[in-house]
Amino acid sequence: MLTKKMRIGAIVMLIATTLGMTSCLKNNVDVSNQRPTFWMLLANVSTYPSSINLYENGTKKNKTALTGIINAPIGNYGGQYTYKITNGTTDSVLTQVGAQLDSLRYYSLFIYGSNPIKSAIVSTDLSNYSASAVNFRFYNMSENAGPVDVFLGSVKVASNVSYVGNSFDPSLQLITNLVNATTITVKKAGTDEVVATNNSISVGSMQTGAVYTGYLTGNATSTGNDKPSTNVIYAAY
Fold first, then answer.
1. Fewest CB within a 10 Å sphere: which of 59, 103, 149, 187?
2. Which PROSITE patterns match (predicted)?
C-alpha cells in the first residue's frame, strides 16, 4: 500500500465487498463478473477567469459549474474515455482530451493554462516506486515563469524545470532526505527569487512511501487572482 489512507481505504473496500457479496449470495445473484475500475485525479490548476463544466464521454459530471483550483478523484470502468471541458455559462468547448484508461494504473487529468486552457491525461509511472522514499514529480504549468528550481522544505529537489507545454513526464524521482516536509517553494532557476511558495500543502506533510505531484501555475507578472501559486497533490491514492 502507498499510504495509510490507502490501507484504510483497502480495509473499507474489503468490508464493503464482503458484505455486498454476502447479500448477493443470499439473493442468488452472480457476483463472478465484476468489472475493474480506474482511478484518476481531476486537477484543475488553470487560471481561467470563468467557471467550467466537465463532461466524460458526453455525460456532464458536475451538478454546478466548477470554479477555482480543484483536486478530486474520478473513478469508472476501464475503457476509452474523452473528457471535455466547457465554459460554465455558455457551455462552449474550451479543451478536450481522450485516452484508453486501464484499471491497473493511476492517472491525473490536468486542466491548466488561462485563456485558452489546455488539458492532459497523465499516467503515474510506478516502475521505480519505493516504499522507503518520497515518490515525487513536478510540473511547471506557468507559461511565463521561465525555468524554475523546486524546494520541498529546505531540500532542493529539482533544478531548471521548464514549462511543461504538452509534454508531461510520468516518471517519479525518489527523495530520501525529507522529514515530513510541509512546504514547497519555487524559485527562478539559479536565483533566490521566489516565484511562489506554499506553507500548507494540500497533502499535509509528505510521507515516505506516498506518491505526489508538485506543480506551479499562474501568471508570473500578475499579483491578482491569477498570480503564481504552487502546491503538492497525490499522484496515486
1. 59
2. PROKAR_LIPOPROTEIN
- Look up the CATH number of domain 37-123: 2.60.40
Nearest to 91 by CA among 118, 113, 66: 66
- Which residue carries 491525461 as its cell? 121
Task: Read off the C-alpha cell for 51.
Answer: 467557471
User: Which string of DSSP letters, residue by residue, matches 44-64?
Assistant: E----SS-EEEEETTEE--SS
Q: Give the tens place of pLDDT for each residue, 137-161.
A: 999 999 999 999 999 999 999 999 9
Closest CA to 201 of 187, 188, 213: 213
Identify the three-state secondary structure at position 24. Answer: helix
Below-50 pLDDT ranges, the chain? 1, 3-33
Contact of 141 with 110, CB cutoff 8 Å: yes
Q: What is the pTM of this model?
A: 0.84
Query: Cα angle at 231 between 56 and 189, to 5 degrees?
Result: 120
Query: What is the C-alpha R_g of the chain?
Result: 19
Which are the contacts of 22, defined by CB distance < 8 A and separation ≥ 6? none
pLDDT of residue 179: 80
State the residue for C-alpha cell 511558495: 197
